[in-house]
Amino acid sequence: MSQHSAGTAGHEHGHHDEHEDHGSLKAYIIGFILSIVLTVIPLLVVFETSMNKTGVIITIITMAVIQLLVQLLFFMHIREGQGPKYNVMALVLGLFIVVVIVAGSVWIMSFNSVVQ
């Protein structure tokens, strides 16, 4: 019985050290502040500028892509250790699926307007 509890205690300790390596408080605060700033910029562009519609859309999409990268780097730890290699492959597969679904939907909707 004591062998099992000693083995379990060692496993829990190793698991705890693994979480400490994921990110520092400083990295989380920087990521949080960047996320807030990247959310407020498009909001201000929409409400406070006389930019044309195309410029507003490009600004929103640019900020969204940058925020995606911030989320991946600061919160999902995509650049750390052995595991992120699998995370990157899963991310690429997910992005491919999203692009196929969105492009297929746009193609079907544009073809539908031709038929009717």
TrEMBL record:
Protein name: Cytochrome o ubiquinol oxidase subunit IV
Keywords: Cell membrane, Electron transport, Membrane, Oxidoreductase, Transmembrane, Transmembrane helix, Transport
Cell compartment(s), UniProt: Cell membrane
Broad class of the protein's primary localization: membrane
Gene Ontology MF term list: cytochrome bo3 ubiquinol oxidase activity; proton transmembrane transporter activity
Transmembrane regions listed in the UniProt entry: 27-47, 54-76, 88-109
Taxonomic superkingdom: Bacteria
Keyword Ribonucleoprotein: no
Keyword Membrane: yes
Family assignment from sequence similarity: Belongs to the cytochrome c oxidase bacterial subunit 4 family.
Residue ranges that the Swiss-Prot or TrEMBL entry lists as coiled coil: none
GO biological process: aerobic electron transport chain; electron transport coupled proton transport
Cellular component GO terms, alphabetical: cytochrome o ubiquinol oxidase complex; plasma membrane
Membrane topology: Multi-pass membrane protein
